[in-house]
Amino acid sequence: MTCELYKKGFYDGKMKVEAPGGGWIGSNPNKAPAPTTTAAKPRQARVVPLPGKDYLRFLHPNASLAAGFDLGNLFRTPEVMQALLGMPDDQGKLMAALEEMDHFWLSMGSATDGVILMTGKFEKGAAAGLFYSQGVIPVFLSDAHAMMIGPEPSIQAALARMAKPAANDGWVTKRARELSKDHETWLVMEPAANGSGSVFQSIRKFALGFRLSGEAQVDGEAVAESEAGAQKIAAWIEQMKKGVGALDALKIGVDGASLRFVAKDDGLLTGYGGRKAMSSDFGVELYGLIMGGFPGMPARTAAEDKILAIRKGMKREDVLTLVGAPLSVAAIQGLDEPRETWTYQVPFGKQFSLRLDNGVVTQAPR
C-alpha cells in the first residue's frame, strides 16, 4: 500500500488520497518527488516487543480485505512483479525498499482501519527511509527484521491480536490463512455491493492465490449473490477466452452461486498470454474487482489494447466511444485552440497520456 494512503488517508481519518499512477505500491510517476530525507536507522525508531512469531495473527478478525506477498519469489519472477504491483523496475528508492522485504502483508478492517506488516532486513534503512520521507512512522517489532505501519489504534489492536491465539475469525481471515499455507502470494476480500455495472458486481466473496515455486499455479474462488450471477460471470469469462485468445489455461467450474478457477503452468502468470489478458477488457474487470477494495486506487482503468488503437486525427467523441472517459484531464488555458492532455490507467500497469488540440488527437498515447 502506498505511503500516500497512510499519510493522507488512515492517519487523518479521511480518505483524501491522491491516486498513485504506477500501481498500489508504486508512486505516481507524474507527480513531483517528495523532498528526500535521511533514512532513519531502526535504533532511532519506535520499537515495541514482538508479541509472537505467528505474524498472521495481526490480521483483523473481520477483515474486509487481506493480502500477502512473498517478495522474494516475486522478485525472481519479474513479469509477475510488474503485473501485480504495476510498477517499472527502475524506481530506485522504491525498489531498494522492496528488496529489503521478505514478506508484505496487508489487513483492512475498514477504509480507515488498516495495517501493513513487513518482515525482512531493514538495517540499511531504505524501507524505513521511504516511509519517513512521506511522514509515515513505522513501528519496529523487537528489532530491524519486522515493522508495521498504520493508524495508532489499528497498530495497538494488531499487536494485541498477535499476543493471543486467533478466535472467531471471519471468512476473509480464515481463507487468507488457508491460502498462505501453499501460496506465496494471495488476496482475499469481501467486495462491497455496488452499482458499477461491472460483470463482477454480483461477487460477494473473492479469493485469489498464486503459487510461484515448483509448478506455477493460480487458484481462486468467487461467491456471487445468486446462482444466476455465477452463471453470468462464467459465461462472460468463456466469451472473453474466445475473444482474447489468451485465457486457455484458465479453467472455470460453477457450483450453485460459487465459482472456482484454476490455471496451471506459467502461461497465465508470465507468458505472453497473461500479459495479453491483462491488457484486455478482462484485465479491466479484474482490476475493478480487486483494486476496488484498496482506498486511493484509480477507480477507472482502460484496456491497453484499446488505448494503443488511438491514432492522431481521431476526434474526442471517437476516443470516448473506443476507450471511455480518461482518469484525468489537464487543460492549458489561454491558447487560441483548446489543448488538453488525457491520462488513462492500464489495469495493473502504467499510465498512458495523449494530447488533444481543439478536440482532435494530435499526439497518440505514450
Layout of strands and helices, then pairs:
Blueprint: H1 3-10, E1 46-48, E2 65-70, H2 71-75, H3 78-85, H4 92-99, E3 101-110, E4 113-120, H5 126-133, E5 139-141, E6 146-149, H6 152-162, H7 171-180, E7 185-189, E8 203-211, E9 217-224, H8 227-244, E10 250-255, E11 258-264, H9 272-278, H10 281-291, H11 304-307, H12 316-323, E12 328-332, E13 339-345, E14 351-357, E15 360-363
Parallel strand pairs: 1-5
Antiparallel strand pairs: 2-3, 2-7, 3-4, 4-6, 5-6, 7-8, 8-9, 9-11, 10-11, 12-13, 13-14, 14-15
Helix pairs in contact: 4-5
Query: What is the terminal separation in angstroms?
Result: 26 Å
Strand content: 25-35%
Alpha carbon gyration radius:
21 Å
Low-confidence stretches: 1-43, 84-90
Number of separate helices: 12
Measured as a percent range, the helix fraction is 25-40%
Largest sheet: 11 strands, mixed
Number of strands: 15
Summing up helix and strand content along with how strands pair, one would put the structural category as alpha+beta
The secondary-structure element order is HEEHHHEEHEEHHEEEHEEHHHHEEEE
Instruction: Give average pLDDT, whole number.
Output: 80
Question: What would you call the shape?
Answer: globular
Strand numbers in spatial order across the main sheet = 1-5-6-4-3-2-7-8-9-11-10
Count of discrete domains: 2
